[in-house]
Amino acid sequence: MEEKSKILIIGATGFLGYNLAETSLKFGHPTFALVRDSAFSDPIKSQKLQFLSHAGATLLKGSLQDEASIVDAVKLVDVVICAVSSKQTLDQKLLIRVIKQLGTIKRFVPSEFGSDPIKARVTELDDGYNFYAPKIEIRRLVEAEGIPYTYISCNFFMKVLLPSLAQPGLEAPPRDKVTIFGDGNTKAVFMKESDVAAFTISAVDDPRTLNKVVYLRPPGNVYSLNELVEMWETKIGKKLEKLHVLEEELLTKINGTSFPSNSKMLFIYSAFIKGDHTYFDIESSSGVNGTELYPQLKYTTVSEFLDTLI
Ligand SMILES: NC(=O)c1ccc[n+]([C@@H]2O[C@H](COP(=O)([O-])OP(=O)(O)OC[C@H]3O[C@@H](n4cnc5c(N)ncnc54)[C@H](OP(=O)(O)O)[C@@H]3O)[C@@H](O)[C@H]2O)c1
To answer: Which member of 162, 222, 265, 287 lies 3.0 to 4.6 Å from 213 by CB, making a disulfide possible if both were Cys?
Structure first.
């Protein structure tokens, strides 16, 4: 049997990174995590680290600002997966320089894990903020350095908008009134974060995903707002009153606030009005459909997720 690659996770104390580290171990990869000193004194993060360590992960102290720690960590592995938050996207530059200099990494997965930043139609806001620019800058750098890569385009994490049925300001799905943004017919994609991790770890040793974007759009997880509301109405046995917010109105609201306060409205606009998750077909020269590559991976569907909220 082919040996499993050794995987370094950067961001293992974080939301997605922890899922990635857990899954990497579960799938039998020797797993390493580069962890900042401060995480060990944080009660929740230290518990996560203890769990990973007991499960077999090797914890390495270091940070994306500490070159020597990155060099030592990268030397130990075949694959690097970075899962720092979107605010820290550009902090990956030193890591990329180290990966290039060492020249030993078989696959690098930079921290993306959202809409495809190249395809996104929603880019610059009135205040000049561009959510995708740093992610595009990192892609360009990785490609210019000739580093073997895989980008994971998983669209929405379920925890972000699904618990409120894409209603900014709510923490749970509505039971009386619901706001439909735009005409409500544009489809978005939702992925449970542990499933994003399973597809990511499956992709890192796969020659079919080398220098490709892996798009996650599984059947059962691609829905318009109208379809989501209808599904929820069926589950709770009640029709909701529909309020409508048109594109112009939503844009005015987004531009009247700055990022990140407007982030939920921005993501709703991007996915449910502009169709950033689904308006394009996957081009075989640059992308692959993750669900088709790994049909054996069972994933949580939107319907199953909504069942947990009834
Ligand atoms: N598609 C979606 O709906 C969606 C939603 C959320 C996030 N995302 C994407 O998922 C990715 C991960 O985001 P997340 O929310 O899971 O992140 P997160 O929970 O904020 O975790 C960030 C992790 O990065 C670590 N980190 C930060 N700076 C570091 C440094 N200088 N050196 C080493 N480690 C450092 C943190 O470590 P400490 O414990 O030391 O702070 C933490 O483990 C991002 O690309 C983000 O854009 C997508």
So the answer is: 287
3-state helix, strand, coil in the chain (%, to 5): 40, 15, 40
Strand order in the sheet with 150-153: 150-153, 212-215, 287-289
pLDDT in tens, 45-96: 999 999 999 999 999 999 999 999 999 999 999 999 999 999 999 999 999 9
> Is 245 within 8 Å of 268 (Cβ atoms)?
no
Verify whether ligand 1 is closer than 6 Å to residue 84 (CB atom).
Answer: yes
- Residue in 84, 152, 190 to alter for ligand 1 test, most ligand atoms within 8 A of Cβ: 84
Tell me, what DSSP letter sits at residue 13? T
As a whole number of angstroms, the distance between CA 10 and CA 146 comes to 21
Residues 6+ apart with CB under 8 A from 27: 4, 198, 201, 202
Q: Taking the model in full, what pTM does it have?
A: 0.97
pLDDT digits (tens, 9 = 90+) for 269-310: 999 999 999 999 999 999 999 999 999 999 999 999 999 999
108 burial level (CB within 10 Å; 0-12, 13-18, 19+): buried
Nearest residue (CA) to ligand 1, atom 7: 85
Rg, the chain, Cα only? 20
